[in-house]
Write a structure and sequence with these properties.
This protein has helices spanning 7-24, 26-63, 71-110, 112-132, 138-159, 166-188, 190-204, 207-248, 254-264, 270-286, 288-314, 322-342, 344-368. The protein has a domain at 43-159 and 173-204. The protein has 369 residues and is mostly helical. Helix 1 (7-24) packs across helix 2 (26-63), helix 2 crosses helix 6 and helix 8 (207-248) packs antiparallel against helix 9.
C-alpha cells in the first residue's frame, strides 16, 4: 500500500521525461511519425474512401435491395452496384472531359509565348497610362515582365521532365487502386467492424461515457457526410455550369477552366476567388471581352451558389457563423494545409455544437444550484 502512493508520481515522472525527450528531438519524432504515416497511408485512404462511399451503399440498401431477407446479401449487392456506378461515372467523366482538357492544355502551352508577349504589352500600356498621372511603375512592370518571361521559359522544360516521373505516377495509381479495393472490403464487412468497435468501446468506457460518445459520433458523422457529399455535388454543379456557359459563348479553354473552377470551389471562401482569378487572367491574355464576361458570370454563379445552391444542399446542418468559418479556415489552413481548408467548415460546425452543449450544461448546473 505504501508503494502504491508513489505509483501516480512515477507515471507522471515517466510521462514528463518522455515529453522532454520528444521536444528535444522533435525532428526525429516528426520524421518517425512521417514514416509511420507513409506505411499506413493506403489504409487511411481506404478508410476515407469507404467513409465517403458508404452513404451511397446505404442508399442502395434502403431503396433497391431492401426486400432481400439476408442483410449481408443486401450489403453485398449494394456494394457491387456502388462499384459499377462509380466506374460508370469515372468512365463518363474521362470520355467527356479528358479530350477537351488535353486539347486546352496543349493549346495553352503552344500559345504561351504569345500570351506572355500580350501581357508584357498590356503592362507597358499600363506604365504609359500611369506616367500621365505622374505615377512611376517602371520597376513594377519590369519585374513582372522578367518574372513572366522566366516562367514561360522554364515551364516547357519542366513539362519535359514529366516522363521521368512516370514511375512515381504509376506507383500512385497502384496505391489508389489498392486503397479502393481495400475500401470495398471495409464496406462489405462494415457490420462486423462496427460491432467490434462498439464492443471495444463498451468494454473500455463507462456506460454513461459510452452513450455520450456514441451520440457525439453520430452528430459528427451526420455533419461530415452531409458536408462532404454536398461539397462534392456543389463543385460538380458549379464546374458544369461554368463549362456550359463557356461553350455557349465559345470561349477558349472551357474544359480546363471548368475543371479549375469546380475543384477550387471545394475550398470554401477563398477557393472560388482563386478559381475565378485564374480564369480571368488566362482569358485576359486571349480576349479581354471573354475575360469580362467570365468575371461577370463567375460573380453571378457564386452569388447563386452561396444563396441558393449551398443552402439547399446543406440545409441547417452546418449552422456556423461566418466569423467561426473564417477563423477555422485560417487556423486549420495554417496547421494542415489544403486538407485543413477543405475540412475547416465541418470541424467548425463540430466545435460550434460542442460549445453550445457546454454552455447549455453550465446553465442547467447553475439553475439546479
Amino acid at each position: 500500500m505504501k508503494n502504491q502512493k508513489w505509483y501516480p508520481f512515477a507515471v507522471a515522472l515517466c510521462v514528463a521525461i518522455l515529453f522532454y525527450v520528444a521536444l528535444s528531438r522533435f525532428d526525429v519524432v516528426l520524421s518517425g511519425a512521417g514514416s509511420f504515416l507513409g506505411f499506413i497511408r493506403p489504409v487511411l485512404i481506404s478508410l476515407a474512401i469507404a467513409y465517403v462511399l458508404d452513404p451511397l451503399v446505404m442508399f442502395f440498401e434502403r431503396t433497391i435491395f431492401s426486400k432481400l431477407k439476408s442483410e449481408q446479401l443486401s450489403r453485398n449487392f449494394s456494394v457491387l452496384l456502388m462499384v459499377i456506378s462509380v466506374a460508370v461515372m469515372i468512365a463518363i467523366l474521362m470520355i467527356v472531359m479528358i479530350p477537351p482538357l488535353v486539347s486546352s492544355i496543349t493549346s495553352l502551352m503552344t500559345n504561351l509565348r504569345n500570351y506572355t508577349g500580350t501581357f508584357s504589352d498590356m503592362l507597358e500600356q499600363l506604365q504609359e497610362s500611369a506616367a500621365v498621372v505622374h505615377l512611376d511603375l517602371t520597376k513594377v512592370t519590369k519585374g513582372l515582365i522578367s518574372y513572366i518571361n522566366n516562367v514561360a521559359n522554364q515551364l516547357p522544360e519542366n513539362l519535359s521532365r514529366i516522363a521521368s516521373t512516370s514511375v512515381s505516377i504509376g506507383s500512385g495509381i497502384f496505391n489508389g487502386v489498392i486503397s479502393f479495393i481495400l475500401a470495398i472490403y471495409v464496406l462489405l464487412d462494415k457490420g462486423k467492424l462496427m460491432v467490434g468497435v462498439k464492443r471495444l468501446a463498451f468494454a473500455i468506457l463507462p456506460e454513461q461515457k459510452y452513450v455520450s460518445y456514441g451520440d457525439f459520433w453520430n452528430r459528427c458523422n451526420k455533419i461530415l457526410i452531409r458536408y462532404i457529399g454536398g461539397d462534392l455535388l456543389d463543385g460538380l454543379i458549379v464546374g458544369m455550369a461554368n463549362c456550359i456557359f463557356m461553350m455557349i459563348l465559345r470561349m477558349p479553354y472551357a474544359a480546363l477552366l471548368s475543371v479549375i473552377v469546380g475543384v477550387t470551389n471545394l475550398a470554401p471562401t477563398f477557393g472560388p476567388i482563386v478559381g475565378g482569378a485564374i480564369g480571368v487572367l488566362l482569358l485576359l491574355l486571349v480576349n479581354p471581352w471573354s475575360a469580362l464576361w467570365f468575371l461577370i458570370f463567375t460573380i453571378v454563379l457564386q452569388t447563386c451558389d452561396g444563396y441558393v445552391i449551398k443552402p439547399k444542399l446543406f440545409g441547417n446542418t452546418l449552422g456556423v457563423s461566418s466569423v467561426w468559418i473564417l477563423m477555422a479556415l485560417i487556423v486549420f489552413g495554417r496547421m494542415f494545409g489544403v486538407l485543413g481548408v477543405l475540412l475547416a467548415i465541418p470541424f467548425a460546425a463540430i466545435m460550434n455544437f460542442l460549445y453550445h452543449d457546454w454552455i447549455a450544461r453550465r446553465e442547467k448546473e447553475k439553475q439546479n444550484q
